[in-house]
Amino acid sequence: MAPPQPPPAISITDKARKGFQALAANQEKRSAMRKNAETSRYFDGSAPMTRRRRQQVRAYYEVFVQSCYQITAIEEIWDRSEFITRTKEFLEGVTHVAEGKFEEKIKTATLWSYKHALYWWASVLVQDFQTIWHNWHCEVSRHIHMLSVHQSLSLQSWKKNNLSDSELCIIFQHICDQRYGMENLKQHWAAMVMVWLTAARPGSFTVSCGYQAGEPLGVPGMVRDTSSTLRWSDVQFFHMVGGIAVKITFRHIKGYQNPHKDGSLYGNAEKAFTFLPSSGERLEFDLPIILFGIAYQRGLFVQTLEVFVAANQAGRIDQTKPMIIHALNAKLQQLCTGIGLLERNSYYSLRRTAIIEVKRDHGTEKAKDLAFHVASSNSLIYYDNIGFGDLDMGQFRLGGPESVSREEIQKYFSQANLTKWQPIDDEAPTLTQSINQATKDQLREEPEYISREQNLKRLYDETGDQLQELQAAGRIPDNEKIPTGCSVTDGAKLKALSHKYGLDELTKKIEEQLVNRKRAYRSIRLRLRKSIVQELRRKHRATLLESQHQSMRKCSAGGAYEPQILANAAVSGLDHSTTEASLMVEISDSDPSHSDDEDDCVDAEVLERENDASREEPECWTDLESNVQIQIGGGEASAETSEIRKAFLLKWIGMTDTVVAQSNLVCPRCQIDPTMKATEKQRRFTLFRLNTHMRGQTHSREAQLRRALKIDGHTKTSTITCPVCKLPWKGISAFMRHLKVRHADQLWDGIEGESEPEDITDFEGFSDTGDGVMENDGDQVEVED
Length: 785
Prior knowledge:
Layout: H1 14-25, H2 27-39, H3 48-69, H4 74-77, H5 80-97, H6 108-125, H7 133-150, H8 165-176, H9 182-198, E1 235-240, E2 243-250, E3 271-275, H10 287-298, E4 309-311, E5 317-322, H11 326-338, H12 347-362, H13 364-371, H14 380-383, H15 393-398, H16 406-412, H17 415-418, H18 431-443, H19 447-472, H20 488-500, H21 504-550, H22 574-582, H23 639-653, H24 668-672, H25 678-681, H26 687-695, H27 701-711, E6 719-721, E7 728-730, H28 732-742
Antiparallel strand pairs: 1-2, 2-3, 4-5, 6-7
């Protein structure tokens, strides 16, 4: 019996019918439609990082098959009959070839991610993959489990640490103590407060990988027009009775950044947070003031510009470039190290804290709303990495009076309390200084360091010897001074002279030696620094375990930083650990800004830029008692509260660099020197190069007079009349020798301090480069025939 016929289709309008008929007549569009229909099977609409991972796994798999089976055709590589076996062989091969991040072996999670990536490509490249999908999934899953046990794959992962308001307060004080890079530090503080309050992911307000302007969209020829980041148009300020309020809207949220996904949920996924004027005393966490101060200091409220922008190594921000997501954790880890928190911390440490606190104070549903995971996700249960760890389980299960509150236990086991590093006295080095100094001391014991220093010195000596031979042969003027040392000035001068007088081979050797030397020293320093930090972490972990053991002992009441019942607990080994860390190295009197990466001298200081900050408590806490009751402000904003908020806002805006920046500097003496050329006035220096330039002979009185004589048109053959004794001299060099012998006072030799107005010399009449004419403020310079 034949199956029943389907009901007839409904009729359509004449407009739709004519439209399809016109489309059928357009062969060009039909060809394009056919091409898109065939190529759309390879289109991946997932996130950029997911696409990259899938492309990488496909490349690995195809190279594996080509190497092991000597086949190159795509159809044979993705052959359905061999795909299950080859997949299992490929995953086991990865365990032998790849190296893990934590241990020699990779993690099992890596194999699972490879399996998911292969599934996407198999559904595209394996013919009739649906017929073997179930068997492929079951066998590959069992194979991964077997490999995990048989190969003893790594189980380690990053330790999840949390950052609370205690650590943030110390970080804020550390930022206030900095002397440069304040604009960058202030925007990083705003980011930390924002994440701690809203649990926002870092990619919601900075540019994640693959979301920069110009990144491909997965279709050839199509790229992103703008970067996906938080802009000032998403930050709305309001003036209310109590002060400034702000409403922040996050438009770029992980899992919801593809508006073309099936379902209207993904089309307009935004999260808005409102912050009203705070009536409390902790104004460093008042996000409206923090953001308003940043916008006001930049002098802009342009909606299209980014809130968080890029910065260079010196801390100078670039408002034309958005901040990328990788800049956040690097700066946070640097700040944590500066205050003595050696554990690994990231912005997810702040996000976890926000979700955990909301879950405990307001329930699971509010925590889910704050976390804003994708639908049907169960990730929230893994965010609470504390669980019952900050609860007295004996009192919780057996009942009875509460001896220690949950907040006190949290405070006791926080990073700020367990890993605080206090110097012994006011002259003690900070933790960052100790690490840098230990790195420098160990660097000078490295055989590679010693060998490269000796090779560079031999090159300088060889260059100096050949230059002296050329000078003895008359090919170099006698008045050309050839350096004999290996300081930064001597090294640069030797390299310049060798290039000037044709020693090209030596010049090339010196340049190659300096480049290789810089690269090698950086690698050695990073390796030494990593080992030193790991050793410090080991000591602090030992202290942590000891303190946890000692915390079980009953003690009398004590300070505010510890639970009252545990305040005076004797933690054995803690003082010894901090003392050993502080006395690990002896800080020398060398200049910390001197960097071996930036000069050409031999065996110079090998110090990197450091943060000069103390881990001591703020001065305003020194006179406080051990137990202090703090009255939290509330209710309507009073005039006094408004004045306090205003004072903090002005203080926040006024937090600027107190010293010169580290790069992109101009010489102030060049700017006011009329004999310097315009190109010299525009020259840019790093801080170290500027100091070297200022200490050199460029701005000496002799060099200034030589430049002035050249501006006036004098050469080595022209006649110059001395304005003091009226004697003529031929050439600039002869005239300057005459001044050194007969009129040394005119060169200001031996004169220190400020000159009196009447001490003006007779040489103020040389020409100003600004207009090219002579200003006759002193004696006329006349040339006698």
